[in-house]
Amino acid sequence: MLQLTLCILKPDIVRSAHLFNVREIIALILKRQFIFVKSKHLQLKCERAGEFYREHQVDLFHYMSCGPISCHIFGRENAIKERRPMRWVQRKYTTENTIRGQHGVTDTRNCSHGSGI
Predict the structure, then answer these.
(1) Model's pTM, two decimal places?
(2) What local confidence, expressed as pLDDT, does residue 12 receive?
(3) Hey, what's the torsion of the CAs at 53, 58, 61, 63, to 10 degrees?
(4) Residues with catalytic annotation?
(5) Which residue numbers delimit the Nucleoside diphosphate kinase-like domain (predicted)?
(6) What torsion, rounded to 10 degrees, do the Cα atoms 12, 31, 5, 73 define?
(7) Rounded to an integer, what distance in angstroms lies between the CA atom of residue 15 and that of residue 1?
(8) Per-run averaged pLDDT (10 residues), the chain, 117 residues
């Protein structure tokens, strides 16, 4: 059964001088047999980010509204289960061979947020 999953690339990676990082992250996801569904680049207002991150750290919504973000929906059979080995969710930025491990800087500026849809 096809499932969708969301990948949000955070302001630190999107506004980076190294635009290839965004392309590299998307290529990593596609390499894992995910299909591209849709992308949108936007700037969250602080209030909107606060709604989205209500159950997360209080300071995170300020960070998520400090610059542009890049949102991507990917699909795959068992997408939610299959994305976990990529560890773009619930993993520290220091974990090797992961999106956050390759592109993250700190636990907050870890380049990505992911969830199931």
Answers:
(1) 0.78
(2) 83
(3) -140
(4) 113
(5) 2-116
(6) 70
(7) 35
(8) 88 75 85 92 88 69 84 89 58 67 74 65
